[in-house]
Amino acid sequence: MRVKIRKGDTVELISGKLEDKGKRGEVLKVMPEDHRVVVQGLNIRTKHQKQVQTQGRTINPGRMKFEAPFDLSNVMLVCPKCNVPARVHIQRDEDGVHRVCKNCKALID
Ligand SMILES: [Zn+2]
């Protein structure tokens, strides 16, 4: 399956058991091989850092929040023109490959 979501896109969480359903965020990373995506502000997890001993002192970085990857099928691209989560289709012409919003027909690229 072709991945239609790219880094820098705005996406909306449309399904899944995540508490963030309906929220939007900017795509930070796409992992097409794993079919996973990382979105700013969505699916926040807390990582517990281990204590570090350095030069006789103990540094405790504590808890660190980070965005965990989740399945690409849980998000939908938000069209920058009509501002709704939109289905896109791929259009090829002499300039290359473009994504077209099925809702407003706008070129997204
Ligand atoms: Zn649109």
How would you characterize the overall build of this protein?
This protein is mainly beta and 109 residues long. Helices cover 0% and strands 45% of the residues. It has strands at 10-13, 24-31, 36-39, 44-48, 52-54, 57-59, 63-67, 70-71, 75-77, 88-93, 96-101. The strands form four sheets. It has a five-stranded antiparallel beta sheet with strand order 8-3-2-1-9, with no helix packed on it. Strands 4-7 form a two-stranded antiparallel ribbon. A two-stranded antiparallel sheet has the order 5-6. It is elongated, with a radius of gyration of 18 Å. The mean pLDDT is 89. Residues 79, 81-82, 86, 101, 103-104, 106 line the site of zinc ion.
Main β-sheet description: 5 strands, antiparallel
The succession of helices and strands, N to C, reads EEEEEEEEEEE
The amount of helix comes to under 10%
Strand residues, percent: 35-45%
Q: For the largest beta sheet, what order do the strands appear in spatially?
A: 8-3-2-1-9
Rg over CA atoms, rounded to whole Å, is 18 Å
Strands, count = 11
Structural class: mainly beta
Distinct small-molecule ligands in the complex: zinc ion
Q: Count the helices. How many?
A: 0
Note the overall shape.
elongated
N→C terminal distance: 20 Å
What would the average pLDDT be, to the nearest integer? 89
Low-confidence stretches: none
